[in-house]
Amino acid sequence: MANVKVVTDSASDLPEGLAREYGIEVVPLTIRFGDEEFTDREDLSPEEFWDRCRDSPTLPETAAPSPGRFQDAYQRARAAGHDGVVTLTISSALSATHGSATIAAEAVAGELEVRVVDTRNVAMGQGLIALEVAERARTGAGLDELVALAHDAMTRAGVVATLATLDHLLRGGRVGGAKALIGQVLSIKPLLALRDGVVAEAGRARTRAKALAACAERARAAAPLARLALIQGACGEDDVAAMRALVADIAVTHPMLEADIGPVVGTHAGPGIIGLTWLRA
User: Fold this and answer.
1) Peptide bond preceding 224: is omega within 30 degrees of 0, i.e. cis?
2) Helical (H) or strand (E) element with 157
3) CB distance 106 to 74 below 8 Å
């Protein structure tokens, strides 16, 4: 039986307890607010990130982990007796993290076999893929089987979310000012999804309630599901409760998870983002 360690990065938004339960090491990205630099979820929690966003006149910036952070994770895995590592990264179209993980894998090539997989995903879309692979790794599966499972899970993954505000998109230069202003005047709530590893608009709703219902309908259309997660960032409890109710009847193998959206998505999405991620059965 193989003894493979699963590594991912903090863009996955994996809750700490789940990562610990499944034996997944999470390599953190870096967040900068002006001259201040923080390590994601080590010295800046999602709650603290959102608090700082509210008080900051400029948007924060995120940076990929250094290759050294991944190399340290690989060497810890080797020291703990693992005979291989599968690293599951945020989409390479969104971050340089995949490149850092690959450089680190090359650096330890003579000591430990490391396979780096670009999940073409982010947030708990990435996180659910990591959970799927880690669960199989606990059965003694080898590197080839785990990499194949990761690629299969990627074909079954879905992400959809809606924003409460267009302010962060506007401030981040992601949309033209006129388009954002029109959206605010008409109270349009955009839906976002991932296409080919890139965040793309997936529709619009006139009200928050309709946007939540549209997210739930997308997940329902993909059912039956193996895994489902409710994701949110600085979102009101009423919206979270409404989303829970909307997805309560969706057929899913594992209990639904809930996770806080952190800086990687939150920087551009803004407070109040809420959505769903899933893996089809």
Assistant:
1) yes
2) strand 157-162
3) no
What ranges do the domains of the chain cover? 4-155, 157-280
Dihedral (CA of 151, 136, 158, 99) sign:
negative
Beta strand 113-118 with 157-162: parallel, antiparallel or unpaired?
unpaired
Q: Which sign, positive or negative, has the C-alpha torsion 169, 88, 215, 230?
A: negative
- State how far the alpha carbon of 160 is from the alpha carbons of 177, 188, 199, 238, 241, in Å: 24, 16, 10, 19, 17
Return the CATH fold of 4-155. Answer: Rossmann fold (3.40.50)
User: Per-residue confidence of the chain (281 residues) as pLDDT tens digits?
Assistant: 999 999 999 999 999 999 999 999 999 999 999 889 999 999 999 999 999 988 877 788 899 999 999 999 999 999 999 999 999 999 999 999 999 999 999 999 999 999 999 999 999 999 999 999 999 999 999 999 999 999 999 999 999 999 887 766 655 544 444 354 445 545 678 888 888 888 888 888 889 999 999 999 999 999 999 999 999 999 999 999 999 999 999 999 999 999 999 988 888 788 899 999 999 99
CB 52 within 8 A of CB 15: no
Predicted TM-score of the model (pTM): 0.93
Q: Which CATH class is domain 157-280?
A: alpha beta
Domains 4-155 and 157-280 share a fold: no
Q: For residue 114, what are the CA distances in angstroms to 81, 147, 214, 254?
A: 14, 11, 40, 29
**Amino acid present at 84:** G
